[in-house]
Amino acid sequence: MTEANHTTSPVDDSARAEAPEIVQNVDPAPAAALDKLIQEKSELQDLLQRRQAEFENFRRRVTREKAEISEHVTQAALESLLGTLDDFERALKVETPDKDYAKGMELIYGRLYDQLKKLGLEPIESVGKPFDPHVHHAVEKVPAAEDVADDTVIDEFVRGYNFKGRLLRPAMVKVAVHTQA
Known about the structure:
Elements: H1 13-24, H2 28-93, H3 99-118, E1 121-124, E2 136-143, E3 152-158, E4 160-163, E5 166-169, E6 171-177
Parallel strand pairs: 2-6
Antiparallel strand pairs: 1-4, 3-6, 4-5
Helix pairs in contact: 2-3
């Protein structure tokens, strides 16, 4: 009986003694090929993980850039509409005999103003506040009354606005100052 057919019969001690010799005589080419395939698999998995991370970073960057562009476009649109908003405010201050017309103008102004606020427009409250050169543009300085603190905004010529916390347009104001005698 040959050794190949000997697998069905019980293994004796002499066959066990020959087993290390058989293992040593194994051709190293399949083992090297297996090691190479395992290494290649590991490299491909690493490459896949890197590509997935790069794609995720790309997706986040594109999302952030889209938001920045959208915000920039909204800011530019709001800046262009501020003049119209100012015109509405001036028109509402003019007395008119037609009360229905005045009411219609107020409604249109109110709707426009509400929509602009939803987009992120925030008015800057100025009158009665201390002058802040970061948000106010002093158009006029006048002597302050005794009951008014120094560098207090007493009138607003043009309202200032912020856009999502950033200055869009400074308020043009009249400032009360104490003169030193």
